[in-house]
C-alpha cells in the first residue's frame, strides 16, 4: 500500500539547506505538514519562506548532537501538530582527513549527528509513530554507507552504521504499521563537502583543494534527489539509490567487493592534491 503524503505530519531534520530544504518544499507541495529541524535558524527561516502559506509548519532550532535537544523535540512537535506520521533523519556532517590525524572528539562529534541523532530521534518519536495506522521512518545514509572511502573513515563508519541500524530495525517493525526506508545518495551537489571539518593534522590548503576537486564531481541537484526520495517514500521502498554513480557502486560492491574497494581508493587518491 502506498503512503499518502496528504495531511501527513513529517519531522524533517537537516531542513535548512541541500536535500533537506528541497524535501521540505516538495513534501509541502504534496500536502504534508512539516516540523522542520536544524541548528541553522536563518536557514530554517529561508526554507520556511519557500513554502506555501497554507502549510501547517513549525520550525525547531536544535543541535542534534545534544541528547537533551532531541528529547525535547516530541513535546514541541506534538504541541504544534498533535501527531507525527513520518520521521526523516537527514541531517549530516563530514570529517575529512586521515584517521590518525583526528581524535576521538572529532569522531564522536560526527557520530553523534550522523548516527546517534537518528537512533535517538527514532526512540523518542516511536511511541507517536505507533499510534498511526501507517507511518514511515526515512534514514539518509550515503553511497559511503555501501563502500569504504579513504580520507572519510568517520563518515563511512557513520553511514554504514545508519544502514545496519535501519535494516535491522525494519525487521523488528515488520508486523507494525511503521515502514523503514534507507536512502543512499550518490554525488548530490550540496554544501556538505564545503562545510566539512578537516582533521587537525591535515594541510588546510591541500584539503580545500581536494574538496573543490571533489565538489566538481557532484552533479545531481538536490531537487532531483528529493524527488527520488519522495517517490521512494510514497511506494514505501525499503531502499532508495540516488544517481547513476550510486547504482554503479552498489552493483560493483555486490559483484566484486574487494576489487570495488581498491578501485574506489585509486579514484580518490587520483583526486587528492599532490
Please report which band the strand proportion falls in: under 5%, 5-15%, 15-25%, 25-35%, 35-45% or over 45%. Answer: 15-25%
CATH architecture: 3-Layer(aba) Sandwich
For the record, what CATH class applies? Alpha Beta
CATH topology: Rossmann fold
Helix content: 40-55%
Whole-number mean pLDDT? 89
Number of strands: 9
Strand arrangement in the largest pleated sheet:
3-2-1-4-6-7-9
Report the structural category: alpha/beta
Please sum up the structure shown.
With 274 residues, the protein is of the alpha/beta class.
Describe the overall structure:
The strands form two sheets. A seven-stranded parallel β-sheet has the order 3-2-1-4-6-7-9, with helices on both faces. A two-stranded parallel sheet has the order 5-8. Strand 1, helix 1 and strand 2 form a beta-alpha-beta unit. The radius of gyration is 18 Å and the shape is globular. It has a single domain, classed as Rossmann fold. By secondary structure, it is α/β, with parallel strands linked by helices. It is built from nine helices and nine strands. The mean pLDDT is 89. The longest helix is centred in the middle third of the chain and has 26 residues.
Based on the model shown, name its key terms.
274 residues; alpha/beta; Rossmann fold; 7-stranded parallel β-sheet; two-stranded parallel ribbon; 9 helices
Topology:
Elements: E1 9-13, H1 18-29, E2 33-38, H2 41-49, E3 57-61, H3 67-81, E4 86-89, E5 95-96, H4 104-129, E6 135-140, H5 153-172, E7 178-185, E8 197-198, H6 204-215, H7 222-234, E9 239-242, H8 244-255, H9 257-271
Parallel strand pairs: 1-2, 1-4, 2-3, 4-6, 5-8, 6-7, 7-9
Helix pairs in contact: 1-7, 3-4, 4-5, 8-9
Amino acid at each position: 500500500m502506498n503512503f499518502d503524503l496528504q495531511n501527513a505530519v513529517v519531522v524533517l531534520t537537516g531542513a535548512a539547506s541541500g536535500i533537506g530544504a528541497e524535501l521540505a518544499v516538495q513534501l509541502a507541495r504534496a500536502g504534508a505538514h512539516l516540523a522542520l529541524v536544524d541548528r541553522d535558524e536563518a536557514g530554517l527561516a529561508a526554507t520556511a519562506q519557500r513554502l506555501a502559506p497554507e502549510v501547517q509548519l513549525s520550525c525547531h532550532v536544535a543541535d542534534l548532537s545534544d541528547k537533551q535537544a532531541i528529547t525535547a523535540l516530541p513535546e514541541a512537535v506534538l504541541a504544534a501538530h498533535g501527531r507525527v506520521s513520518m520521521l526523516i533523519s537527514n541531517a549530516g556532517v563530514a570529517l575529512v582527513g586521515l584517521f590518525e590525524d583526528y581524535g576521538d572528539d572529532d569522531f564522536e562529534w560526527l557520530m553523534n549527528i550522523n548516527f546517534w541523532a537518528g537512533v535517538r530521534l527514532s526512540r523518542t518519536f516511536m511511541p507517536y509513530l505507533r499510534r498511526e495506522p501507517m507511518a514511515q521512518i526515512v534514514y539518509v545514509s550515503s553511497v559511503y554507507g555501501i563502500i569504504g572511502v579513504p580520507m572519510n573513515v568517520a563518515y563511512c563508519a557513520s553511514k554504514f552504521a545508519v544502514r545496519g541500524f535501519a535494516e535491522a530495525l525494519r525487521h523488528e517493525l515488520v508486523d507494525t504499521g511503521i515502514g523503514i526506508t534507507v536512502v543512499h545518495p550518490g554525488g548530490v551537489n550540496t554544501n556538505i563537502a564545503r562545510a566539512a571539518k578537516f582533521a587537525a593534522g591535515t594541510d588546510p590548503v591541500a584539503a580545500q583543494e581536494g574538496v573543490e576537486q571533489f565538489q566538481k564531481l557532484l552533479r545531481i541537484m538536490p531537487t532531483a534527489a528529493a524527488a527520488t526520495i519522495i517517490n521512494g517514500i510514497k511506494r514505501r521502498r525499503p531502499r532508495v539509490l540516488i544517481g547513476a554513480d550510486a547504482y554503479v557502486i552498489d552493483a560493483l560492491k555486490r559483484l566484486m567487493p574487494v576489487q570495488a574497494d581498491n578501485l574506489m581508493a585509486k579514484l580518490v587518491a587520483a583526486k587528492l592534491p599532490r
